[in-house]
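Long-time lurker, first post. I've been practising inverse folding by hand and with some scripts of my own, and I keep getting stuck on stretches where the structure tokens seem ambiguous. Below is the full token string for one chain I'm working on. Before anyone asks, I'm not after the true native sequence, just a reasonable design that respects the backbone. If someone could post their per-position residues I'd love to compare against what I wrote down in my notebook.
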């Protein structure tokens, strides 16, 4: 039976699934995407994320100062520079350092206790950049080229990027996931998003 209820007002939770971590994509936002932090032919896959590279360095015993000079930290600094917060807290060095510490704590917790279903991640059935900005129809009609770095048709992590990265590095192959569907497709315009940024590359 298909389960359907409103999730956070903007999404409908349509199912629960156990998904393969290596096939998950990080959320893609064209305005803040920077190839420097997302290398590879399919850059938004979990394995290509700066999150995974940070954890791999930590796993290798790298010092804190090395971790604070990682692509993960530089990405946070870049977001701060262009005005993308994603949080009500100022994304300064102190905040970023605290974010790194919490990330490593999550990693150690999952390493010690495993990953429980109650901490399931939220995954979009289709990427938000296609549905919320109504780009799916434009691409089908040939009105829009796929932007550089754009992921495939999904599944795309909406919430739980750090947990997914931890599972990948720890060798946990499958992760419990709530499957979401955009309940407000076509309601966001890129121009509105752009006005929130101080300046994009």
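-- Answer (accepted) --
I ran through it position by position. Result:
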């Amino acid at each position: 039976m298909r389960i359907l209820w409103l999730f956070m007002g903007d999404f409908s939770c349509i199912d629960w699934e156990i998904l393969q971590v290596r096939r998950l994509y990080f959320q893609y936002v064209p305005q803040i995407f920077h190839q420097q932090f997302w290398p590879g032919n399919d850059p938004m896959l979990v394995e290509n994320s700066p999150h995974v590279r940070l954890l791999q360095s930590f796993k290798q015993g790298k010092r804190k100062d090395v971790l604070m000079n990682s692509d993960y930290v530089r990405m946070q600094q870049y977001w701060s520079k262009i005005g993308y917060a994603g949080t009500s807290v100022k994304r300064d060095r102190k905040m970023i350092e605290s974010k790194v510490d919490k990330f490593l704590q999550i990693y150690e917790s999952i390493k010690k206790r495993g990953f429980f279903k109650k901490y399931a991640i939220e995954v979009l059935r289709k990427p938000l950049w296609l549905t919320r900005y109504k780009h799916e129809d434009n691409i089908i009609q040939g009105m829009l080229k796929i932007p550089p770095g754009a992921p495939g048709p999904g599944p795309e992590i909406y919430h739980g990027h750090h947990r997914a990265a931890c599972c990948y590095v720890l060798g946990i192959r499958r992760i419990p996931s709530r499957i979401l569907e955009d309940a407000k497709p076509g309601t966001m315009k890129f121009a509105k998003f752009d006005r929130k940024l101080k300046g994009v590359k």
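A couple of notes from the structure itself: The radius of gyration is 17 Å. Residues 5-194 form one domain. Happy to go over any region you disagree with.
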